[in-house]
Every structure is written in C-alpha cells, then in structure tokens.
Predict the 3D structure of the following.
Amino acid sequence: MLSNVLFVGWHLWATDRLQALASVLVFAAVVALMLFFEGLRFGLIDDLRQFPAALPADLVAIERDVGQFAMTASKLPQLSRSQAESLGGVLTAEPLALAPIILTWADRKTPSMILGYDRAVFPRELAQGRRIQGPREVVIDTALAIRHRLAPGDTVEIFDTPLTVVGISRGTTSPFTPYLFLTYDDLIDIFLEADLSIGSDDFSFVSALLINLEPGRPIPALRADLEATMPDADFFTPAELGERDARYGAKLLGPVLILTSGIAWIIGFLVMGFLRYSAVDARLREYAVQKALGADQRFLGGVLSIGGLLLVVLAFPLGLIGSMGLAHALHAWNPLFSAMPLEPRVLTGGLVATVVAGITGSLLPLHRLLRLDPTLVFQR
Amino acid sequence: MIRWALQTLWHGRGATLASAGGVALAMLLVLYLDAVFRGEADQVVAFIEHAPGDIWVLQDGIENLHMSRSRISDQAIADLRQALPDAQVLPVVYRDVLVGPPGDQRVAYAVGIGAQAGVEPWDIGHGAARPAPGEVVLPRPLAAMLGLALGDTVRIGEGQLRIAGLSRGTFSMANPLIYLEEGDARNLLKIGDGASFAVVTVATGEIDAAAQAIAAGVDDVEIVRRDDLIRSDWRLALEMGGELIRLMEIVGFLVSALVVCFAAFSFVARRQSELAVARALGASRKDIFGAVLVMSLSLALTGVLLAGLAILVSAPLLVRFVPQVAVNFSLPMYGHVGLGVTLIALLAVLAPARRVAQVDPTLVFQA
C-alpha cells in the first residue's frame, strides 16, 4: 500500500517535470525569504548581546535603573572607582567612558560608540593590526572599517582630531552602536578640545566600571556589598548585561521585526499553500483517475501528501542555501547587520511551516476530489 | 478565443482564485514592507517638517537632529538675534530621554515648549497640546505600550510628570516625540542655559543672506538649511535601519516576482493541451496569444484587486493592534507594484503561449 502511494504520488507529481522544477524553485525562494527574515530578527538581537556579554570583568557597574550597557547612556559618579576599589575583595575597578558619536567619514555616516578605557585590554579580538600603544591612536570595529573604507595605517578624524587607525576589532559590531576604542586620556582630550557639552552635568566620564574580584571571592556576596556601598549603581555580570541589551533591543526593535518577519511567514505560508492547492486543483482529473480505478480516501490523501512532501524535501534545502546566500549578501552590503538562518529555532519554524503549507495545500482539494463522479473523468 | 479564455477562468474558479491569491499575496508582501519602511523613515523627519524655520542653527560639528545631542550657548542665541534683527529666532530644548519605569524604559526625544509658538505637537488626539509645568504630552502608541492613559503619571528621566495630552503622528520605533514645558525640559534634560538648537525664520528669498550673516556673526555653530537637515536625518535613518527594511523590500519584491511569474506561467501551462486543440481547430497564433494574455491579465488584475482589498481591511487593524510600528501605505506604490505585477504576469505566459502557437496542429491528433 505504502509503496503504491509513494509510486503514484511521485509519478503524478513528476509527470510535468518543468512544472515540478518551477514549483520547487518558487517554494525554495519563499522558504529562503522566510528563513532570511526570521534569521535577521535573531541576528540583530544576538549582535546586541555579544559585546556586553564579552566584557572582561566579573561584574559591571552601571548607573542605577539604566539597565543597559550600550543602548542608553549611563553616568556614574566620578568617585565611583575609588568607592569600588576600597571594598575588600575587589581587585580592580576599571572605568569606561562611553560616548555616542556619528562617525562621518568617506561620505558615510554611522552612529557609533566611542569606548574610552584606561588599563583594560580592549578590544578582546583583533582582525587586523594591533591594540593602542600610543597617543592619538584608535582601534575600530570591522563593520565600521568596511563601511568607511578604513584600514590600519589610515587616518580618521573624530571631532576634527586626526587619529591613526592601528587595529580593526572583531566581535564589537552592534547594529546601532559599533565600537571605536580610544584611551581614556585621548577621549578626554578630544572632547575637551572640541569644546563639547558632554563635559557638563549631563555627561560623566565614568559610564561603567569593570570590576574584577580577588580570586575565589563569591560574586553574589560581593555584589550585595557593592550595592550597599554604591547606591547610585547597579551591578551585573557581563552575561546578564548582554542579555539585558538583547532584551532591550528586542523590545525596541521587536514590533517592527516581528511585523516584517510575521508578514513574511504568513504570506510565505499562504503562497506555498495556494500554489500547491492550485497545482493539485488544476490536475484534479489525473488524481480522479486513481479514484475511478478504486482508490479510497486514504490512498488519495497519501498520494496528494506525497506530492506536497516531495516539494518540501526538494525545496527546503534549496531555500536554506538561498537564505544563507542572502545572509552573506546582507553582510557584504552592510556589515552592521547579520542574519542567522541556521539558528535552530529559525530552521525548525521554517521546516514546520513549509511542511504544513505543502501538505495543507495538497489536501485542500481532497474534498472536491472525493465528491467527483468517477465517470466524469473519462468524459471530454 | 477570448470568450473561451474567460470561460476557462470561470470554469476553474478554484485554481483561478488560488493563482490570483498567490499574485495578491506576493504583491502584499512588497506593499507591507514598503509601508513599514515608509512609515519609519517619514517619521524620523516629521519633527523638522512640522517645525517652522528656514535655517537650523546647531552646535558646531552637529549636522543631524536624529541620534545627536546639540547644545548652543546663550551667547550664541544672543549673537544670532543680533546678526538677524528682523528674523524670528526660536531656541529649542530637545534631547533624548528615557521614558517609563525602570526596567521598561524607552528612548524618546523630548521637546521643550516655551512661550514662543512653533514646536508643539501638530496633531492632538486627546487632551492639551501645550503641557503646563509638571505635565507631558506623549504619543498615543507610547502611552499604550507603557500601559498609561491621559491623567496618569509617567517617569521622564528622573522626574514624574502627569500625562496632559496624547498626540498623533509623533511616534515611530526610532523617533518618538514627547513634549514638556520648557522649564521641566531644562530641568530633566539638564540643559540649564542656552538651548539645543535654534530655528530661524527669515523673509522669503533671504535665506542665503541670513546664512551668511549667521556665519559671520555667530561662533561655534553649524548652520543647516531645513531641507539639508531633512536630507541628512533621512539619510542617517536610512543607514541606521531604513536600508535594512529597504533591502528586505527588494528581496521581497524579487521573491514576489518569482511567485507571480510562476502563478501565471503554471496556470497557462496547464492549459496547453486545450490551447493546442484550439490551434488544431483553426485558431490563429494571434487568437492563442490573445487568449493567453487575457487569462494572465485577468489573473493579475484579480490579484491586484485582492491585494487592494486586503490592504483596505488590514491597514486599520495594523494601526489598532500594532500601534508601535508606523506604517504608511502609499497609493502610488500600490499603482507601481500593481503595474509591475501585471507586466511580470503577462511576460511569464509568453513562453507557454509561444510553445502552443508553434505546435503543428496535426500533432494534437497523433498518438
């Protein structure tokens, strides 16, 4: 019985090879679209998580109630470093200054985040060049380097101050705040020379503190001590902070990403279902021949479903390859954005939607097929 | 033959509607993505478009309002008034601020409204347009997202203000606008003196001369014409996220074109044998092409119509149920996409029509 269903299902589906090939290609294109859009949603949020989650510290202090590292400005009191370091169990408290700028270079504008640091090792990973060793040097994120056509040895101006690019960093891309790294001294000099208002009361040169604990000190206990000592600050592990940035990004971008991705899912699902329905409906007579020859409902349902599944089996891998191609194209076109079509939740959702659309579209005409008078098949 | 084509479409109503539905859905994908792109990008420059002024005077080196913090001094404002004694100079307090309770904060742009008119919300849904001290006007979707209504209290930065008005057309994902009394804005945004920027209105035809006078008489400021500022913010918005939505739209269009192509092609290709019989019975090539084009045109137009109906039904639902996304369906875009879809559908059926037209009529009766 099963082999008959398979044989007849395959035979009927593949009779018109051109039609079958075209339908595989269209299904694959729709699958690629769905996986790409959904992968983009996951990619954007993941990029927001990466940098804060990889900060080199046991705990990160940020302004109380701000709750995010990169997406909103945090201001800590200038004395917060000494407050933290005075606490037993704290090995170092490294201040970071975060200053948003719009990098305008090579006829492009990119909102970016300058990270000024003192002794910490930034960035963690270099794609090219080296870390900062002298004054007026800058390390920039890979995406920024590509967008603004910058390489080690080039000069870039920030607030009219020329800086030499000495390194290109990796793992520092964020869709809305790709990072540039400066020493603390250079950051202060540049902003003071530019006479920017950030020296006023709405800006602090301590945005965050990277707190490293003495070996063996339990984080929860020391976190409680720090919270008691520094009431103006909240303390998070880098992983928690990464998760908070990702959550905030999801909240901020979620509606638009869910809407666009949701539209792609719904329309993709319906398109696949409609096209499969239309293909089966147009060849109802050929399926009806089987009924005239004595096939029952189960057999016919199996035959129709096999056609749908064949389509899915051939189209889904192609669609996956297509979505990976689109993800590569997106990253090449604008390296600030990345899509993750291979993320398991994206793949599972895509596969389920494709299978359900293929089978539902195949089975919808079954009711009509069952009502068809077998003798009509042989008329005309 | 044309009558036959129409009868065929009617006879296979299920397949016709399914194919037209495919066309409509493909078209809807492009139109929805375009509406999202248009809604967000338009909204980024909505404040500048609704504000008065020909020249915007910002902090030196700042050429954008969006994602920037500009600050000009009292001295710069005084110099500006001195350089242009006949012009209207409106200093504006404007800065990004966190809105909402800790843990559920959103970034918004706060506008301080002083005694001078010019930068109030342009469309008020409920309540007052000019907030009194201790009050704020929020975009309606932002209030809804925070679960707040008129009269409730909302946390703005480090202060608590009463919601006195709910505005319309002032919300987008990237650029929600809230309005505060100027004193509150200065206090909460920590802008004690000066302003964020000044908007200068001059007499018609005097913009160039005014810009030159500002450049000569005011130090440390950036002089940006209104159109240039709109262009600059629009471009920044595009680079920030608009480009991404635009790319999604392009990908959507390509996939949609493929779907339309396939729907029209397969609909006609499945009727090749009937067309071949018609050819054998004496139908000319012109008749065959005519019938095929009528079928394809009918499918495409039905799809375009269905897409239009779907937008009419879904647009108010989107506004109601997804207020946090600014969507702006465009009639010209509907026309362009509809035309594109129709052309693609017509081109897609030329190959099967040509195949049928070239068939030797006698072959139909063989085998």
Notes: Chain A touches chain B through 65 residues (CB under 8 Å). The CA atoms of residues 106 and 148 of chain A lie 6 Å apart.
